[in-house]
Amino acid sequence: MVRDLHLCPFLSRCHQVITMLNSM
Fold it and tell me: What are 1-24's pLDDT values in tens digits?
């Protein structure tokens, strides 16, 4: 998950998706 954040830390949409994945 951390790598995904580094891949697109400036994309709010990507951040939201990661947040949802973390929730699961």
Answer: 556 556 655 667 777 888 888 888
